[in-house]
Amino acid sequence: MSAGNGVIRIGNRGVTKFEIEFEDEGRIDAVAVSLDVIKVDAFRADLDQSFRDKDGVVPKEKAIEHREAWLNFSREAIKRYAVDETKAAKAADSMSDAACLAIHKHITEEVEKLKDFFAVASGKEGSPQESTEVTYSTS
Q: Over the range 12-34, which residues count as b (16 or more CB within 10 Å of their CB) and which as e?
């Protein structure tokens, strides 16, 4: 069936799959990970927001704790969403901070790819907004 028949084909949009290599007892191993980027990004946004003040700034006294939580987020995501839980724990525990940040970057890139998918067309594509004139009468 096609979209013309009333069916919208979505497929695996929003699911990203990748492997993380890690060293295990002197040999290189890998674990497959499958993430729902919308779910993971929402969790990441909630985590980030929990450290911010009312102005949206992370206070200096929370900066180190924020950074650690941000890095540990990647490790926890791997443990939670990896295909093989045993390998996932080993991989997550051996991840460098740079690897954690690479996962954040990957999630952000995947979320950016989905923005157009979730955008609703307005029907007035490319037309500038018309100005509205309001006249008040005191009589």
A: eebebeeebebeeeeeebebebe
How high is the pLDDT of residue 1? 46
∠ CA 92-44-16, nearest 5°, is 65
Mean pLDDT of the chain: 79
Q: Which amino acid is at 12?
A: N
Q: Is the pTM here over 0.70, yes or no? A: no
Q: pLDDT value at position 38?
A: 84
End-to-end CA distance of the chain: 63
Distance CA 131, CA 87 (A): 60
Helix (H) or strand (E) holding 36: strand 27-36
Number of Cβ within 10 Å of residue 65's Cβ equals 11
Q: Comparing 22 with 8, which gets the higher pLDDT?
A: 22
Q: Work out the average pLDDT over 7-27.
A: 74
Give me the residue spans of the domains in the chain: 3-115
